[in-house]
Each structure stands twice: as structure tokens, then as C-alpha cells.
Specification:
The chain has helices at 37-47, 114-124, 133-141, 150-153; strands at residues 14-17, 28-31, 57-61, 71-74, 77-84, 92-96, 102-107. The N and C termini lie far apart (56 Å). The chain is globular, with a radius of gyration of 16 Å. The protein has a seven-stranded mixed β-sheet, with helices on both faces. The longest helix is centred in the first third of the chain and has 11 residues, at 37-47. 22% of the residues lie in helices and 23% in strands. α2 runs antiparallel to α3 (133-141). β6 (92-96) and β7 form a beta hairpin.
Length: 159
């Protein structure tokens, strides 16, 4: 009997990054498929361009990731996981890459609708976006009713 070990790999992450960094409160967005950080984080880290640096630590919101482990193993390294309950960091993940910098990503809830997630992914990676993660998710939950017509004004998140 031939027994072959199989390794399951998460699909490529649903991720958008803004060109460059330091443009606003967010550097992009990530839409994980589930709320198990130990399963999702290795795929996220593995998909990042090597030019962004090596992720050594992540900071996540305790409300979004209540059962997050304190360390997540990725191929070739262990990543420290810090938990925060600061409102500014709600619904976001911070990727610390040592001297290369820090990236803030909106974390889109796994069960979000495709339409809302598409808007969130696009808007968070727009260099002109000035919205925070909690504000963006609130807009998505309210059906994007912030008083602007995105089709007409051409601002961040224009359809």
C-alpha cells in the first residue's frame, strides 16, 4: 500500500495593495476565506512581494480574531501575533517588516458579500483613499450611503 502524505495549501489570498506606502490610513485590503488566522496568515505572507520585506510580526484586532494564536508558523519562519483592542486598528491587520516598514491592511470579514468586498478591496488600495478600516466597513454595511454618488464624483471607490 502506497501512503503519500498530502499537504493542504490555502488558495492565494484575496489581496490588493496600494502602489507605494504612506499614502493614507491603509495600504490595501485582505479578504480572508475564514477566521482561522493560523490557516490564512501563511498564504497572505507568502503572496507578498519580497521587496516589501520579511513579515516578523502582525497585529490584529481581538474582536475580529478572538482565538488568534500568539505565533503562526509560515514556511521558514514563525510570525509573532500581537492582539489589540484599539478602535483605530479595528478591522485591520498590521504587518511589521522590520526596517522595511509597516503595512496596514483592511481585513474584510470572510462572510462579506462579493459586491461589498470588491468595493472594499478597490477602495482600500486606492492611493487617494482617506477612509479608515472601521469607516469603510460601516459604509459597506450601510449600503455605501455616505451621501456621495460614486459613479459621478469619481472619488475613491468609484464604480
Amino acid at each position: 500500500m502506497d501512503v503519500t502524505a498530502r499537504t493542504y495549501r490555502m488558495p492565494l489570498p484575496r489581496l490588493t495593495l496600494a502602489p507605494g506606502t504612506g499614502h493614507g490610513p491603509l495600504d490595501g485590503a485582505w479578504w480572508p476565506r475564514c477566521d482561522a488566522l493560523e490557516l490564512e496568515l501563511p498564504a497572505l505572507v507568502g503572496s507578498l512581494d519580497a521587496g516589501l520585506g520579511t513579515v516578523t510580526r502582525v497585529t490584529v484586532d481581538t474582536a475580529a480574531w478572538p482565538d488568534a494564536p500568539r505565533t503562526v508558523m509560515t514556511p521558514g519562519q514563525a510570525i509573532e501575533v500581537a492582539l489589540t483592542d484599539v478602535d483605530v486598528e479595528a478591522h485591520a491587520i498590521s504587518l511589521d517588516c522590520g526596517a522595511a516598514g509597516r503595512w496596514e491592511l483592511l481585513v474584510i470579514p470572510p462572510g462579506e458579500s462579493v459586491a461589498a468586498a470588491t468595493w472594499l478591496l478597490t477602495t482600500a488600495s486606492d492611493p487617494r483613499n482617506a477612509l479608515t478600516a472601521p469607516h469603510m466597513l460601516a459604509l459597506a454595511e450601510s449600503g455605501f450611503d455616505d451621501g456621495t454618488d460614486r459613479r459621478r464624483d469619481g472619488g475613491p471607490g468609484a464604480w
